[in-house]
Design goal:
The chain is an alpha/beta fold. It folds into two domains: 5-30 and 65-157, Dihydroxyacetone kinase, domain 1 (Rossmann fold), CATH 3.40.50; 162-286, Hypothetical Protein Tm841, Chain: A,domain 3. It is 37% helix and 27% strand. The protein has ten helices and 13 strands. It has helices spanning 17-22, 47-53, 68-80, 98-112, 127-142, 147-157, 171-175, 212-227, 243-254, 269-275, and strands spanning 5-10, 25-28, 31-34, 37-40, 62-64, 85-90, 117-122, 162-166, 193-199, 202-209, 232-239, 258-266, 280-286. It has a six-stranded mixed β-sheet with strand order 10-9-8-13-11-12, with helices on both faces. β1 (5-10), α1 and β2 form a beta-alpha-beta unit.
Length: 289
């Protein structure tokens, strides 16, 4: 029997594509504009070629969230194959127009299919923090959980799912206008490795270190302090063309925390525009019992 609740999210959730397929998650692609050409994130623009090209780009690409028509098309396709309930989870509304576009699409689709139940959720986060919400929702849907319980699960995850990441520079965040309250770090870009997170939907600085190794140590300490000793967590290690850095982070984090599930994900190009290649970090949440 087909699962009753469909899960939709954005490509910037950066869920490994094989995992999205296995869990029946529909990821609506963002757009990346390069030299006058529009590419669809993770559809006709892959991570390897994009991150190889980005460091030498003469001009920073721009990004655009999916339109309301893009979301409406996906919702319509789901209705056509039999779904009557949709949970749609989106990147922070304070950093993108995706959530508002999905809300517009919801109103439009309900005019066509008034029987449809659809919840559009602002994750107030990004990358695999948003991704974890979609993954856990999809798993619940596959177990046969009802619409209301899946919605409640996601809303419980919103305040407890956290990101920590670092990069050699904040240049890309700054150039793309996504630096938020971490702007004060710009003056010492060459001297530090900034650690950024999301708080209430915006980028914030939560620390800085003199080397990547010290930044990773600080990340591990922060994870441990946030979740407490012995509490089980699920974690996604994130990178932008920096896979070799992941094991360094993993060793430190899993040496002081109880990780019951972990995975590795690469930031989608639409996010990599703003973070730049070399970014590494993690998204995690304490297991909800």
């Amino acid at each position: 029997m087909m699962q009753k609740v469909a899960i939709v999210t954005d490509s910037v959730a950066s869920i490994p594509q094989e995992m999205s397929r296995e869990l029946n998650i529909r990821c609506v692609p963002f757009y990346v504009h390069i030299d006058g050409n529009a590419f669809r994130d993770l559809v006709n623009l892959d991570c390897d070629s994009f991150y190889d090209w980005l460091p030498n780009a003469n001009k920073l690409p721009t990004t655009a969230n999916p339109s309301s028509a893009d979301y409406e098309k996906v919702y319509s396709e789901l209705v056509e194959i039999g779904y009557q309930q949709i949970v749609s989870i989106h990147i922070t509304s304070l950093g993108s127009g995706a959530y508002q576009a999905a809300k517009i699409a919801k109103r439009a689709i309900l005019n066509k299919f008034p029987f449809l139940k659809i919840e559009v959720i602002d994750s107030l986060n990004v990358a695999m923090c948003q991704g974890w919400m979609a993954i856990e929702a999809a798993r619940a849907a596959l177990r046969g959980n009802n619409f209301e319980s899946i919605i409640n699960l996601v809303y419980k995850m919103v305040p407890i799912t956290q990101m920590l990441q670092t990069a050699d520079t904040l240049k890309f965040l700054y150039m793309g206008g996504r630096i938020g309250s971490a702007k004060h770090l710009m003056g010492s870009l060459l001297k530090i490795k900034p650690i950024i997170s999301m708080r209430d939907g915006v980028v914030v600085s939560v620390g800085q270190a003199r080397s990547r190794k010290k930044a990773y140590q600080l990340m591990a300490e922060k994870v441990n302090n946030i979740v407490g000793n012995g509490r089980e967590i699920k974690i996604a290690y994130l990178h932008a063309h920096a896979l070799s850095e992941i094991e360094k982070i993993r060793e430190l984090v899993e040496g002081c925390t109880t990780v019951v599930e972990s995975l590795v994900a690469e930031l989608s190009p639409a996010l990599g525009v703003h973070t730049g290649p070399g970014t590494s970090g993690l998204c995690f949440f304490p297991v909800i019992n």
